[in-house]
Design brief:
By secondary structure, the protein is of the alpha+beta class. The radius of gyration is 36 Å and the shape is elongated. It binds a DNA duplex (14 and 10 nucleotides) through residues 338, 340-342, 344, 346, 348, 359-365, 367-368, 371, 387-394, 429-431, 526-532, 559-564, 635-637, 652.
DNA sequence: GATCCTCGAGTTCC
DNA sequence: CTCGAGGATC
């Protein structure tokens, strides 16, 4: 059956409606009709074209995914070469000035001429793609290739939803070749990978590789499954079109043709405004929704662009200022283990040095065995490295597809690499530890470094290099030995002059008057960090009170539970530890007076309170700090050790507990009267 | 007993 | 910064 005039009209109407909706949705990011409505129209057009193939046009929205897989890509010779833009290393304000100065010099401008106008744009992290429109219809898409000859990828380009199959104009140029970047949004990347992972298929390494892989798919159906997007930023061959006078107007014109043009572009005057753009984009970078490498500065006036011309195939009128990559690929050269001060065995990946996030990374921690297994990192693997948040390099995961033959899973050593003691991994714990204790030189070094650390005794000048030498030279075995060091001994060491040696000795002397909590923290008792050390100091006032406290007494300290209490008593029950502390104290420590939990109020000091319900005037926090300031303690649940339960409105089960255990229950006025007694 | 929150410990590079 | 573990809370 032949298509009627009505069928032709209907197909035309459907095509226009769908094209308009897709333009609003993909290119302008401003949907005009619901997705379901789009699907309905789409299926209607599909049905119509199926029964009347002569109604099918090359620009029909149904033709985005079509055609059989290719055997190979056909080469495409670019009429106008696809050049790359010179990438500058100096991306500071000075770099922008250098570019501007070069432009002005070439244009023979003098200081009295006004600032040069530039268009600042984003540098997208994807794959360059040229789209050729003849009389407004997309006829060919090609990759950059070597710049002279690329590959024809028309079928794949048609699957990019934001690429118009037909320009939105009534008088299209005879030939309009658009240059731009195909890329994958982070959302599409995540969605695709989630789907692949769920199906047990290989995932993409990053959006950039996703874009490159998708465009170079021989089967357009596979390409369509990896959704790409597109931004136009320039031109190739043109016939029958009056070129706009500036880059800014050109991009506006491309947008008017219905091509996607990124809106983060700014016409600026002079180099300082270029640098401002760079800075502004750096801030916005993470929220863009897609990856960029940096920014591109282009001389805005086209006649000036022509005047500036090219030098060794790079335009002299444009420059790219990159941002440091946030993720990079590199290879695992080895996985070694480090022994920490507590004996913790930490696997560390030695990496082929790679520039990421602005620095060269060659090591990254793998934390523990579970982590290595979860990320499945092996020696020889290609891995994704990232600088997490701020600074610390992290192995995101291994790229299993690129794993060479014959790799093996990482295994923990059974013996400590430093002292050959047995390595143990307690049941249910993530961390394996060397059992060597102070026999292990790695643990001894770690202990000494912790002792000297900034938040501990803060011994300036005693860093890892010096500790290393002191231990290896048998000058120092334990912390107390530090205080017997002489200026002469120190001055003989590597990288230690007379001056440094003198200042280290002076530091050691000074440190004897540190606050008590620093000393307690410096001892390196397991589970006793800075905060707990402060609590202990405040609670007990002297080092000997802490040393002689039993578990019950320790439980009264803030944030000390059974495990921490046991750890502290265990530490001081050990004769070696006690003696080591005594030897240290004998070096002449005199602690600055401790600001105790002023037990000024005899009624409250040492008592345990439990708060329940809502008090009429006091907030929970206020009551708590009042009690603590007076030397009392606030507990969470009622036990026979509880002195008072302070009950307010809507008191809960704690009130019942108090009555059952015979603990005194008071209200707010009674509570306040305790402070005035 | 489950869940939330805080602390401790280990770590990178310049 | 990150993870794991201990303590507090509900």
């Amino acid at each position: 059956m032949f298509a009627t005039d009505a069928d032709f009209k209907r197909a035309l109407v459907l095509r226009d409606a769908l094209t308009e909706a897709a333009h609003r949705y993909y290119t302008l990011d401003d949907p005009s009709i619901p997705d379901a409505e789009y699907d309905r129209l789409f299926r209607a057009l599909q049905a119509l074209e199926a029964s009347h193939p002569e109604l099918q046009t090359p620009d029909s929205p149904t033709q985005r995914v079509g055609g059989a897989p290719l055997a190979a890509f056909a080469p495409v010779r670019h009429a106008v070469p696809m050049l790359s833009i010179r990438t500058e290393t100096d991306v500071t304000v000075a770099g922008a000035h250098a570019f501007d100065a070069r432009v002005r010099r070439e244009l023979k401008l003098t200081d009295s001429d006004p600032p040069v106008e530039y268009l600042a744009e984003l540098k997208f992290d994807g794959l360059a793609l040229a789209l050729r429109y003849e009389n407004g219809i997309l006829v060919r898409a090609a990759t950059r290739g070597d710049g002279e000859t690329g590959e024809e990828v028309t079928l794949n380009a048609r699957t990019i939803a934001s690429v118009p199959l037909k320009l939105r104009t009534d008088s299209p140029p005879a030939v309009l070749e658009v240059r731009g970047e195909a890329y994958m949004t982070r959302a599409d990347f995540d969605r695709y990978n989630d789907k692949q992972r769920a199906a047990g298929f290989a995932t993409l390494v990053n959006p950039r590789n996703g874009a490159a892989g998708s465009i170079r798919q021989l089967d357009p159906k596979l390409a369509a499954a990896r959704p790409l997007s597109y931004f136009a930023y320039g031109l190739g061959e043109i016939q029958g079109w009056q070129l706009p006078p500036t880059q800014a107007v050109l991009l506006d014109a491309l947008a008017a043709f219905g091509l996607p043009v990124n809106k983060e572009r700014r016409a600026v005057a002079g180099p300082d405004e270029l640098a401002n753009f760079h800075r502004d984009i750096a801030v916005k970078r993470d929220s863009l929704g897609f990856d960029i490498d940096g920014v591109v500065y282009k001389v805005n006036r086209r006649d000036w662009q022509e005047q500036l011309g090219f030098v060794s195939r790079e335009p002299r009128w444009a420059v790219a200022h990159k941002f440091p990559a946030q993720e990079e690929l590199t290879r695992v050269l080895a996985i070694e283990v480090q022994v920490g001060r507590t004996g913790a065995i930490t696997p560390v990946a030695r990496l082929e040095p790679v520039f990421v996030g602005g620095v060269t990374v060659s090591n990254a921690t793998l934390h523990n065995l579970d982590e290595v297994r979860r990320k499945d990192v092996r020696v020889g693997d290609t891995v994704i490295v990232r600088r997490a948040g701020d600074v610390i390099p992290e192995v995101v995961r291994s790229v299993v597809e690129r794993r060479p033959e014959g790799t093996t899973e990482f295994a923990l050593p059974t013996h400590c690499p430093e002292c050959s003691s047995i390595v143990e991994r307690p049941e249910g714990e993530a961390i394996a530890r060397c059992t060597g204790g102070m026999i292990c030189s790695a643990q001894r070094k770690g202990m000494l470094l912790h002792f000297a650390a900034r938040r501990a005794l803060n011994i300036e000048g005693l860093g890892d290099k010096l500790v290393e030498q002191l231990v290896d030279a048998n000058l120092v075995h334990e912390a107390a030995d530090l205080f017997t060091l002489t200026q002469a001994q120190l001055a003989g060491l590597d990288r230690m002059g007379d001056k440094s040696a003198t200042s280290v000795v002076a530091e050691l002397e000074k440190v004897k008057h540190a606050e008590l909590h620093r000393f307690i923290f410096a001892l390196g008792i397991r589970h006793v960090g800075e905060t707990t050390a402060k609590d202990l100091a405040k609670h007990f006032g002297t080092i000997h009170a802490v040393m002689n406290a039993d578990e019950n007494a320790l439980l009264d300290v803030n944030d000390v539970g059974p495990i921490v209490a046991a750890s502290i008593t265990h530490f001081f029950a050990n004769e070696k530890n006690r003696n080591a502390v005594e030897r240290l104290l004998a070096c002449g420590f005199e602690f600055a007076p401790v600001v105790m939990n002023a037990p000024t109020n005899a009624i409250i000091a040492g008592k345990t309170f439990v708060l329940t319900g809502t008090l009429p005037t006091l907030k929970r926090e206020d009551a708590k700090s009042m009690i603590e300031a007076a030397g009392g303690k606030v507990a969470g649940s009622v036990s026979k050790k509880t002195s008072y339960v302070v009950a307010g409105a809507e008191a809960g089960t704690k009130l019942d507990d108090a009555q059952r255990l015979g603990v005194a229950v008071i209200d707010e006025p009674e509570f306040l009267s305790l402070f005035n007694a």
